[in-house]
Amino acid sequence: MNAPVKDAPVKDPPRADEAEADLRRRVAKLERINAALMAHVERSTDQQGGAYALFQTAITLEGRVRSRTEALTGLMRELERSNAALVSAKEEAETANRSKTRFLAAASHDLLQPLNAARLSLSALADLPLAPEAGAIAGQVERGLQTIEDLIKTLLDISKLDAGIVRPEVRALALPDLLAELAESFRPFAERKGLRLAVRCPDVAVASDGVLLRRILQNLVSNAVRYTGAGGVLLVARPRGGEIRIDVIDTGCGIGTEERSLVFDEFYRGGGKGGGDGQGEPGLGLGLSIVRRMAAALDHPLALASRPGHGTRVSLTLPVSVVPVEAAPAPPPVATRLSGAHVLIVENDASTAEALRRLLQNWDAEVSAFRDLAGVRAALAAGLREPDILVLDYHLDDGACGLDVAAYLRAVCPAPLPVILTTADYAPEIEARADLLGVELMRKPVKPAQLRSLLTYMLA
């Protein structure tokens, strides 16, 4: 029996799974290459697209910036035009204010001249023996003239304050003395109405302009007395840190809420009862307007509080002075007689010259009146007695000045001549010239009692 024959080993062909795996590796590699290429393409596309988008955004922003810049430039040009218009309007307003002030100054001079003559004539009339009815009429005329004078001066003051002409001269002031003087001047009017007038003030000095502060407080006290029918008026100063608050308190009719914003306006008169100045005369409606302007010029805060039917408090706050008050010089002795004194008048207004001549003659003075320097020269050449004192108007005819008359007479007369200069012109340079020449200045309308006192003092 033959042995079985073993089959020879047969070499296996390549396996199909290996081929498939190799193919898959190749495909995967190709896919990776493809993916890498696609990613590169996408990145390149994104970069190009972002740059384009940025480019587009830049163009858009540039357009917006240009538009906004043009709009802003237009607004700036419009603002410049508006500022130029405002500057021009401000200059026009200031020019108008200055023109108004000059006009009022000139007009007040012309108005005060006949008013001065009328008051001097009225004073001369009052020196004559008059029937009671004539005396009463003369008193009414005097009050009317005083009202006109107050109105003209107040309007001029308002104009000067609005134009910024008034320049406060701040110095140390003894407040107790000032308040005491005010109280004394108003006490007769308060007592006439049955009112109490009291003052409370610590020993303190304040920094202010004496003339302006006095005017402010005069107007406030006058208003308080005017509009208080019963009770009284209190003038009190209270320390407030480094400041002093001055209160003018009354028990008058009070001011309603709707009126409080109006009381400091021009020509506004309170509607409350109990008013009147003791003569039944209404106020001008300018006092508080002046107060507001002067307080603003001094930078003194002003406040008002009031309850209808209970009274009013007006407060003014001032700084305490850091320097002491200068001692006032002792008052000089005053003479009392004008008898025989030769008074030389130079006045170009005929009615004023005549009224002044008559008034001085009533005081037993010898009077020589002239219109100008030429008349004075001619009279002296004709043997006129040398004068003892001169009363000269500042503004004479043809632009001449009363101070020229004073200079001439002082040069030709051996004895020193005292001079009183009268004027209705309130320009500060006139006062400066008078001070420089040692001349006493009196504002028109001249008050007869003040003139007589000054004459007797200067002749002593």
From TrEMBL:
InterPro entries: CheY-like_superfamily, HATPase_C_sf, HATPase_dom, His_kinase_dom, HisK_dim/P_dom, HisK_dim/P_sf, Sensor_HK_Regulatory, Sig_transdc_His_kin-like_C. The keyword Transferase applies. Residues 342-459 form the Response regulatory domain. Keywords: Coiled coil, Kinase, Phosphoprotein, Transferase, Two-component regulatory system. SUPFAM superfamilies: ATPase domain of HSP90 chaperone/DNA topoisomerase II/histidine kinase, CheY-like, Homodimeric domain of signal transducing histidine kinase. GO terms for molecular function: phosphorelay sensor kinase activity. It catalyses: ATP + protein L-histidine = ADP + protein N-phospho-L-histidine. Residues 106-322 form the Histidine kinase domain. Gene3D superfamilies: 1.10.287.130, 3.40.50.2300, Histidine kinase-like ATPase, C-terminal domain (3.30.565.10). The keyword Disulfide bond does not apply. Pfam families: HATPase_c, HisKA, Response_reg. Residues 1-21 are annotated as: Disordered. The modification 4-aspartylphosphate is found at D393. Residues 8-21 have a biased composition (Basic and acidic residues). Residues 72-99 form a coiled coil. Its EC number is 2.7.13.3. It comes from the Bacteria. This is histidine kinase. It comes from Methylobacterium hispanicum. The gene is luxQ.
